[in-house]
Amino acid sequence: MSKEDHWKSKVAYYINDFGEGTTLHGIRYIINKKFHPSERLFWLAIVVLATYGASALIYNSWYRYSSNPTVISLEKDFRDWNLLFPAATVCFLERLNESAADDLLLERWNVDNSSKELNLYLKFLNSVVNISYENLDEFKDYVEDPELVKVSGEEMAKIARKLSIAMDYHATIFNSAYKSMKFHEVLTEMGICYTYSGLVANYISLVDNPRPKKDSLPTCNYLNSLCYARIEDLPTSIRYYIHAPTEIPDSSNKFFVVSKNMERDTSFRFQETVASKDLRRLDPKQRQCRFFNEPLEKTDDEIYSYNYCRMKCRKRLAFEYCGCAPYFYKKEEGIPICNIKGLACLAKHAKNLIRVHDQNGKAEKCDCAFLCETTDFYIDKNTMRKCITWRYSCSILGV
Q1: At 62, which helix (H) or strand (E)?
Q2: Is the CB of residue 356 less than 8 Å from the CB of residue 366?
Q3: Contact indicator for 393, 292 with CB cutoff of 8 Å
Q4: Residue 97: what are its φ and ψ, rounded to 5°?
C-alpha cells in the first residue's frame, strides 16, 4: 500500500470512528453504511441545512452586537442633572472697520476718497470681511478687476482679521467665579465669529487659543435658581447661536438677531445625552457615536464634533467643485484657500454645499456620527424689547 493510500485509509478510519461515537444528531446516519444511500443523502441534507441555519443565527447575533450594541434609556428624574453651561457664538452682521479699511486701501492699492475705484474696492473688503455662503455671489463682481484677482486666499484671511471690528462687550454671568471668561475667536461658515463658554472655538481659529478643559466651564443644576449670562454694550448688530459647549454652529443652524436699540431675552429647555463608562470600550462604528476628545482617524484634529465633521465634509465637497475651500475653514494640507475666482466658482454651488449635496443633487456621504455626550437646547421663552439707547445689548442665555 502506498503512503497516499495509507493516509487516506487512516483519515477514513477516524471519520468513521467519530461518526459512530459522536452525539451530534444525524452524523452517525451519514457515516453508517448499513443505511440506504438515499437515507444517508437525506440525513446529509438535514445536517447541512441545520448547520446553515445555526450559522445564520450566530452571524445575525454577532452582526447585531457589532453594529448596534448600545441601549438607549430615558431618565425621568428631573432633579438629578448637572450640565455644562450652554455656549453662545456671536457673529457681527457688519464686521468691517471702516477706518482700518481706508488705511489698507491707501497702503495696498493707493486708493483714496478721490479714486474712482473706491466704491468697488471698499465693497470688496466688505465682502471679504463678511464672507459666508450667503454672499459668495458678490465675488463675481471682482473677477474682471486685474488688481483684485491677484489677492490670494491667504491674504484675504489676513485682511478679514485685520479689518474686523473689535469684539467689545460687557458680560455678566450667574457665577462670579467665571467673570473672567471671555469670547474666543472661531472660524465658522458664517465667517469669523466669537464663542462664549465653548470648547470647540479654541481649536478652530486663525489664531492660537489656549486649550480649555470641561472643568474650566460653569455648570448648571437643579439647585441653581437662575443660570444665566448677560452680554451687552456690543459695537454693532449681531446674530447669535446657542449650542452645547462641545459643538459649533454651522450654516444650517437656527440663530437669533439683536439689532440697534434692541434687547433680547432667550431662555431654553434642554435634553442631555450622557454615556456610560463602558461605552468607550466599544469601537465608534459599533456605538455609532464619538466622544468630544475622540477625533477622526487619519486627521490632525484634536477634537470631534458633529457640526465640525459636517464642515470638513463641505470643505472636501468645495474642493471637488472648484479645487479650493474658503478661508473660513481650518487650513488643511492639499486643499488650497480660494482666491476670488475660486469663491466665484463656489457661488454657483452654494445651495448644494449648504445641503451637502454633490453635483447631481444627491446627498454626499459624510460618515459624521453624533456625539455620545451632548446637550440639545430648545427655546422656552424668547422676548424682545426696544430700548431708547444707541447701545446694543442682549440677555442671551438662560437655562
Answers
A1: helix 37-67
A2: yes
A3: no
A4: -85, 105
In sequence order, the 6+-apart residues with CB closer than 8 A to the CB of 330 are 187, 204
Query: What is the full DSSP assignment across 276-310?
Result: -GGGGGS-HHHHTEE-TT-PPTTS--S---HHHHH
User: pLDDT for 103-145, tens place per residue?
Assistant: 999 999 999 989 999 999 999 999 999 999 999 999 999 999 9
Contact 194, 167 (CB under 8 A): yes
Distances in Å between the Cα of 270 and the Cα atoms of 82, 83, 95 are: 12, 10, 32
Look at residue 1 in the predicted model and tell me its pLDDT: 54
Contact 106, 95 (CB under 8 A): no
- Give the separation between CA 16 and CA 62, rounded to whole angstroms: 33
DSSP state of 176: G
Residues pairing with 91 in the sheet: 239
Contact 303, 200 (CB under 8 A): yes
Q: Which of 288, 4, 335, 17 is nearest to 154 (CA)?
A: 335
Work out the angle between the directed axes of helices 306-322 and 340-347 (0-180°, nearest 10).
Answer: 100
Number of C-alpha atoms within 13 angstroms, CB side, residue 47?
Answer: 15
- Which position has the grid cell 462604528? 285
Q: What is the pLDDT of residue 137?
A: 95
Averaged pLDDT score across all residues of the chain:
87
Residue 121 contacts residue 110 (beta carbons within 8 Å): no
Cell numbers placing 65:
452586537
Q: Supply the pTM of this predicted model.
A: 0.80
- Residue keyed to cell 463602558: 278
The one-character DSSP state at 65 is H
Confidence of residue 71 (pLDDT cuts 50, 70, 90): low
Rounded CA-CA distance 336/326 in Å is: 9
Specify whether the CB–CB gap between 307 and 188 falls below 8 A.
Answer: no
Cell matching residue 52: 446553515
Question: Sorting pLDDT into bands at 50, 70 and 90, what band is 344?
Answer: very high
Given a contact cutoff of 8 angstroms between Cβ atoms, the answer to whether 255 and 375 are in contact is no
At 236 the three-state DSSP class reads coil
